[in-house]
Amino acid sequence: MTILIPEKNNNIFRLYHKSSITLIPLCACSYILNKNNIPSEYLFHSFNIINIGFHSYVSTSSIITDYLKNPKLSKIARISSLSGHVLGALGGFVFLKNMASINKNNKE
Asked: What's this model's pTM, rounded to 2 decimal places?
């Protein structure tokens, strides 16, 4: 399954390297927009959640490939890593939704 071993897919690995360029600029934009309470900040936060989650998942998968040689243990670690990263991203989106509703209620 390509999703469990993303570093073996050239397209995913190419996207991983291209997305690493945007990590710091997107975080900086999110910080500036958040400090100035600009409404489009949630769009940047969403991109950050996706980008950081994707980058972290591919990095973790590469570490699993390098250090876990037992196939059964490696598969368990990969499934756990994917599950954890998906849950983390979903948690980030839920947090953003809650913050948006809190900010909306404060403006009223």
From this structure: 0.88
